[in-house]
Amino acid sequence: MDSDDTSTISGRSLQVGGTRASDRRYDCLDDAARLARRYIDGLQDRPVGAQAGLGELRAALARPLTDEGEDPSVVVESLARDVDPGLVASGGPRYFGFVIGGAVPAAVAADWLVSAWDQNGGGFVASPALSVVEEVAATWVRELLGVPASSGVGFVTGCQMANFTCLAAARHAILRDAGWDVEAHGLHGAPRVRVLAGEYAHVTVGVACRLLGLGQLVDVVPVDDQGRMRADALRDALAGGTGDPTIVCAQAGEINTGAFDPFVDIARICREHRAWLHIDGAFGLWAAASPRSRGLLAGAEHADSWATDGHKWLNVPYDCGIAIVADPRAHRVAMTSTSAYVPAHDDDEPYGFDWSPEFSRRARGVTVYAALRQLGRHGLADLVDRCCDHARLIARRLAAEPGIDVVNDVVLNQVLVRFGDDDALTSTVVQRVQRDGICWLAGSTFRGRSVMRISVVGWQTTPADAHRSADAIIAAARTAGG
């Protein structure tokens, strides 16, 4: 082919052998930035819930796949247009569903760069720079959460895989102490591993146990009226055991109430019975960043492992979970993998696949690095405190209204609400609020009763948003109540 020969890709010409004449394939990146900025700028005013249903979205997005491909800018423009009615404004200031945070600007921008750099975050040899970025981010996370500085840290997809990773390390350590090498021999013939968790443990703990071959029949420990594990019940359960290697799963931030298990007592009991203590702190672990709230975590520093999410209260884009294990050797042995084409490396050389289940993965710790640099210690503490203040404001407004009951102690960012002490009315109010679009929140069930569940974790929420949302909930309750 001559140096001035050209090829055409999706209708755009480029010179193959010499200087590019009109290569505009990457104009779509500018288009994406413009469209993303327009979406983010509109979060304050757009309805919070989706405006299109399943049928409409399928009609807009399901199209025949072409043989020749399409212009990249056309793809990006039409994608943004067609998905827009089905987007939920979860990054906005009045989204209070499912403990979903927004994303601070530095983290969004860093996430774009991660995609543009397209590095495998699995190890130093594949991406030296981003491996070091994640190493630094891990150091900051340890410091902010008050866990041992020597802990292993793995960046995973979310708290499902963070729980999995931590419990894999736990499985390794307690079976090792029982004389069994689970990595070499598997579970067939191994001592039985006993797992105890509170009655309201998150479903991801059970799923992690199932994936690890431990079964989903976790021994349930009774809880109090806020969903906190009862330390006396845990002591009785451990005392009545058969001496099997044991893992105890506690919670920092019960998923409905936001309550914290009594870690001082639980940690002492676990030490007495040589049980591994794991803490599922998907959002609640970030309370450690706030001098005002970190007392809720007293004793949590004595756990053996901790799981949390970055895409909740830290407000980085999906997906980002963080698995932390106090014994880095147990963490690494449970996770690390190698192959003939992977160079040997020293323990202090940053290889992401030493600490997470994935061999190839996105360098998701970069968004953590960027968010923490933007926020700083004081900014992160302020984010946590503001969200708690907004939750309490909404709770006060609702509790003052006849027929509306706040059924939990608002110790953090979670508010549970019941209307007319009636399941059907509560569900109706939730649906009306979702449909009105001023704010968005979800229904749940707590202690066998339907509740409205309000989770405040977004960095953009202001007192005005909290008041506006409370007004919308009260108006929906009055209308629904006749």
From TrEMBL:
InterPro entries: Aromatic_deC, PyrdxlP-dep_de-COase, PyrdxlP-dep_Trfase, PyrdxlP-dep_Trfase_major, PyrdxlP-dep_Trfase_small. The keyword ATP-binding does not apply. Its cofactor is pyridoxal 5'-phosphate. It comes from the Bacteria. Keywords: Aminotransferase, Decarboxylase, Lyase, Pyridoxal phosphate, Transferase. It holds the Pfam family Pyridoxal_deC. The keyword Transferase applies. Belongs to the group II decarboxylase family. This is Aspartate aminotransferase family protein. It comes from Geodermatophilus maliterrae.
